[in-house]
UniProtKB/TrEMBL annotation:
It catalyses: alpha-D-galactose + ATP = alpha-D-galactose 1-phosphate + ADP + H(+). Mg(2+) binds at S131, E163. InterPro entries: Galactokinase (IPR000705), Galactokinase_bac (IPR022963), Galactokinase_CS (IPR019741), GalKase_N (IPR019539), GHMP_kinase_C_dom (IPR013750), GHMP_kinase_C_sf (IPR036554), GHMP_kinase_N_dom (IPR006204), GHMP_knse_ATP-bd_CS (IPR006203). The active site is at D175. Belongs to the GHMP kinase family. GalK subfamily. This is Galactokinase. Pathway: Carbohydrate metabolism; galactose metabolism. It is an enzyme of class 2 (transferase). Residues 286-365 form the GHMP kinase C-terminal domain.
Length: 387
């Protein structure tokens, strides 16, 4: 995010609220390199931050009022009373930032109000976590302004609580942690059980490669219900196997675990995805750490097959991106995010960006799908003060 964006957001803040903001903060969206649907199974994920960010100009208030405005929503500021914030009371976009205020207060932090103006370049609803960017940018601003002294992972936990309880979306911890904790030039190897983390150098450009994000621009309407079913299925699998979470099934014990599940065919498929996906994350980490970056391509493809065939959350658009990109010479490709639409990632040699992008666009046109939006994802900085 350039200074220009911080300045624009600051100017708009002055127009709206008639005073300088006390500061400007930025928090990115994310792409998950590998480790899908593992975050609510206490497993491993490996996201990196996008250059796309939510940027917020914020000032404190001392009268218990919270004013929220988004440059991307055609309406004036929304005014709320901090003391009245309650889970489920808000079905609009404002639930994300006001949920953060609610979660901070519920955790015992004294907040007496704020004026917030924000703008975001994270595509909304594309599986790139525009919602987490919104939460984390507000959380970080309040953390600084109210001198709460919370660490990135603590802010992430509170943002997740805001989204789970206040907004009512049963998301895992990956998105908020990625937005809060990622570092430029790195992917974040995160253990979602205890939030221990390791920054893994991930500088594709230096090695002559690129990572493309292909936003299919579709979101199939049943996605939320299906997400809930997968979560419930994973929990049932863990219960049947007598473990706290599927994370506790070692890869070496997978066959025995599947046998124990007997004729629970659907549960067996879910368990197989989670257990093999955790192993794939560990494999990608060791490949990247040993400098064998190109070898992660086939692991991404395995991950896609597992999401498509075992977890069953892909869709024709995502499969078409992956199949077409691989046929056009990509090193690897997989759907990323929750599934049933959203985005796919494609690992390519730098010279193949153009032919692969064109092949995907042509295949979408031939299939009668919407024109996909493709961009290069450079691993970027996590949440930070920007002005
Ligand atoms: P994702 O996080 O994958 O982008 P979600 O459905 O979780 O998708 O979050 C999208 C929602 O976040 C939007 O419907 C909107 O309520 C909110 N949102 C995202 N960006 C903005 C923005 N710039 N201004 C206001 N609300 C936003
Ligand atoms: Mg989201």
């Amino acid at each position: 995010m350039g200074e220009a964006v911080a300045e624009t957001v600051g100017e708009r803040f002055r127009e709206l609220y008639g005073a300088e903001p006390e500061g400007v903060w930025a928090a990115p969206g994310r792409v998950n390199l590998i480790g899908e649907h593992t975050d609510y199974n206490d497993g491993f994920v490996m996201p990196f931050a996008l250059p796309h960010t939510a940027v917020a100009a914020v000032s404190r208030r001392d009268d218990g009022i919270l004013r929220l405005h988004s440059a991307d929503i055609a309406a004036g500021p929304v005014e709320l009373r901090v003391a009245d914030l309650a889970p489920g009371s808000d079905k609009a976009w404002t639930a994300y930032p006001s949920g953060v205020v609610w979660a901070l207060r519920e955790a015992g932090h004294e907040l007496t109000g704020a004026d917030v103006h924000l703008a975001s370049t994270v595509p909304s609803g594309a599986g790139l976590s525009s919602s987490a960017a919104l939460e984390v940018v507000v959380a970080l601003a309040l953390n600084d302004l109210y001198s709460l002294g919370l660490r990135g992972w603590q802010l992430a936990r509170l943002c997740q609580r805001a989204e789970n309880v206040y907004v009512g979306a049963p998301v895992g911890i990956m998105d908020q942690t990625a937005s809060a904790c990622c570092e430029a030039g790195h992917a974040l190897f995160l253990d979602t059980r205890d939030l221990s983390q390791r920054q893994i150098p991930f500088d594709l450009a230096a090695e002559g490669m690129r990572l493309l994000v292909v936003d299919t621009r579709v979101k199939h309407s049943h996605s939320e219900g299906e997400y809930g079913k997968r979560r419930a299925g994973c929990e049932k699998g863990a219960a049947l196997l007598g473990v706290d979470a599927l994370r506790d099934v070692p890869y070496a014990d997978l066959d025995a675990a599947l046998e124990r599940l007997g004729d629970e065919e659907e549960i067996r498929r879910l368990v197989r995805h989670i257990v093999t996906e955790n192993e794939r994350v560990e494999r990608v980490v060791s490949l990247l750490e040993s400098g064998d970056t190109r070898a992660i391509g086939p692991v991404l493809v395995e991950g896609h097959a597992s999401l498509r065939d075992d977890f069953r959350i892909s869709c024709p658009e995502l499969d078409l991106v992956v199949d077409t990109a691989l046929a056009a010479g990509a090193l690897g490709a997989r759907m990323t995010g929750g599934g049933f639409g959203g985005s796919a990632i494609v690992l390519v040699e730098a010279a193949d960006v153009e032919p692969v992008t064109r092949a995907v666009r042509d295949a979408f046109a031939a299939a009668g799908f919407k024109t996909p939006r493709t961009f290069e994802a450079v691993p970027s900085a996590g949440a930070r003060r920007a002005g």
